[in-house]
Amino acid sequence: MEHTLLNLVIVIILLSNIRLLNTSRIPVMIVSVAIQGWVIGILPLLLHWERFQFTLLLITLITVTIKGVFLPRLLNRSMQQAGVIREVEPFVGPTLSLLIGLFLLSLSFWITSSLRSSLPEGLFFIPVLALFTVFNGLFLIVSRKKAITQVIGYLTMENGVYAFGASLAIDHPFLVELGVLLDVWVGVFIMGIAIYHINREFDHIDTDKLSTLKH
Amino acid sequence: MGILLLFCSWALLGSGSLFLWFLRNKNVTHLIGTVTVLLSSLFTLGGALWVLIGGKPEEFYLPWNVPFGAIYLHIDLLSAMFLLVLSVVGGLCALYSYGYFSSEQNHRALERYWLFYFGLFGGISLVFTAYNGMLFLLAWEGMSIASFFLVFHEYNKEEVRKAGWVYLIATHGGTAFLLLLFGILGSDLEVCDFNAFQYPATVATPIFILACIGFGTKAGFMPLHVWLPEAHPAAPSPVSALMSGVMIKTGIYGLIRVISWSEGGIPLSWGILCIGLGSVTGVLGILHALGKKDLKEILAYSSIENIGIIGMGLGIGLYGMSRSLGIVALLGFTSALFHVINHGLLKSSLFLSAGTVLHATHTRNIEELGGLWKKLPKTGALFGLSSFGISGLPPLNGFVGEFTLFLAVLSLSLQGRTILDILMSFVVLIALGFIGAGSVACFTRLFGVVFLGEPRKEIKVRVVEGGTWIIPLYILGGLNLVLGMGSIGIAPLVFGAVVSTLPGIDYHTALDTVRILRQTLFPLGVLGLIFLSLAFLLSRIWNWILKRRSIGTSPTWDCGYILPSSRMQYTASSFSQPILRLFRRLLHPTEFFSWEGNIFPRTASYAYTMYDVIVRIVYEPLFRTITKIATRIHGLQEGRNQVYILYIALTLIILLVMFLGGIP
Known about the structure:
Helices cover 77% and strands 0% of the residues of chain A. Chain A is mainly alpha-helical. In chain A, helix 3 runs antiparallel to helix 6.
């Protein structure tokens, strides 16, 4: 039962990442990242079921609320305020993104297999997918233009970091995770506000046009 | 006692600079500044003379908690020799500044000027006395920065700012090499005292090359001279005089110190390197001086040329040392030191007279000047005297150094056994002959165009020839004459400085060299005296003849022509045109020449512009390449967030892959 659930989680993380890569519709991306947040939020609970503590439950609750509810809603609001629902003309198109995603996935496999000796027993796919999620987030930040998509990339990256920490389960990683979570929350919050204001000033949220500010 | 006097001088400068803070009246500031420098230069003079005459080095040691540092002061004969030049030139330049800046209205500017003048004077004297690497570098930096601010004095002019930056970059580039030099020298030492510096033959050549670059930048060896023709015209004239007269000689001082630390022989290559550097510097320096049209730039290039002569002297000395020809070595170094002193006095007097010309006419472009002797007779006469001296003509002091160098070269070619010996002496002989002829041409042109003939442009000349405008020039001119004819008088001091500094000089060689010097310099002085008294007698007779006749005055170059015009004279450009034509391949002047009509031209004109050869050959391609590379790299700075993040991510991923893949 536990094992099946874990496999399900792995598949959902993988699928949500792929979905993030090959869509250009921002509502879909937000939904994907929300699902990813839910799944990754309950991941610690699944992994450390036998050492169940109240704090673990609390952390799961907080994480899921923030990653799965608050941040997506915030993003949704920003999206509606900015009136941007599609990522038009990204630097890398959906098909090529998918191919690069494949490469990143194999890179994560390779990296994790070189780390195998220091990983806990029976855990291989979780770190692979965690790394993949991190790379995926980075790739989204690099390859997309709209500020809101970049925030989504940032969130994805954070999901990956969280999943990696949870899978390694070093004594109290969650305390650190909570700190990171707080940072992300503040970051996304500020970005949401910034996107709103950038949009109001410039009538668009294309970050590549910000480069004209350097002259 | 000598050290004590120097401490007095520094204390005066320090308290003077404190005093400047509290003064609110600009006249008082100006007076206090001048008097402070004058007094402290007197103290420095006293200290230097005390050591020189007593012949005993003096020391002062105090531990210092700066790493490698100690407050170690040491005045030996060499330091005292340089301090002597500093005290005379520094004091007289300060005296001249009193007149030069008397019409300065800005109190702040005066305050700044004197503060940095104190810094420069104190810095140079500390450079000459510091005997610890750390202290020396500190003094060196202080000197450089003070002189930078003095060059920057008229910072509201664009050209001054440009020159200032060029100077700052050049001087710091030089200091970087010095840091490296002292780093290597003191690598095994706990405290970098000079007397602990000794380097074995294995690292000798890198050390010497570092010293040549580091000290050569300050001295102005080509191709490191680029800051001189920029900074000297930009600086106020007394500052140019002090910098050109004394400050650039700190480079020579440093080189001699480094040579004195060598242990276990001097490689032959050093002498060849120094001779090569010196002859190239001298020849190119005088050619540029011939081509330039800015009064102070010409003087700056002439300084470079003279540094070349000094460099050749050092080179012959080094060559003699490595070939163990003691007399050649001693004569070479003696000639270098002679020329340090004499060039210091001559060039400062030239720069000060140039300052008077500049103040009187407000232009440095010699094409616009002319006939100034009638307006400024005293300055003109003294400028002429110094021009005579710097061209290396007897009986003035510029001749003495070159003459001693000739002696060294002659004894090298006489005692030489190998082809290289003869070759080296030939190189120096040819270069020296060329430089001598070139400088006569250059200063004939400069003096003739500026002071003789008729004005080329209507310029209102402000006659300033009284008081502190002329007194320093008189003193310097007198010193130039006296040192020219009485060179035998200071020869023991110069020679003593050389003998006490160089390692491994035996008694008999020294004695032989003294004999040679005495046999040549004494007749030189006597002949000079005879020449001078004959000239004086002739001028008396001339006056006596003229007294019986009526003397009429008419414009210069009148010569029976009905409509004389100042445009009929030789200009600076037309004077140098044949020489530039001769060296066209080397100097690449851009010439503008027009000629209408046949043998009898209806209109004709000639003009040229000329840039520094080294800048054109070395620096411009260098900086162009750097700019090209930088532009190419600049493409990386895309301006897009995404790309920057990509750089970071790629770097991290590549590092991770490299680490995991076991690639070191």
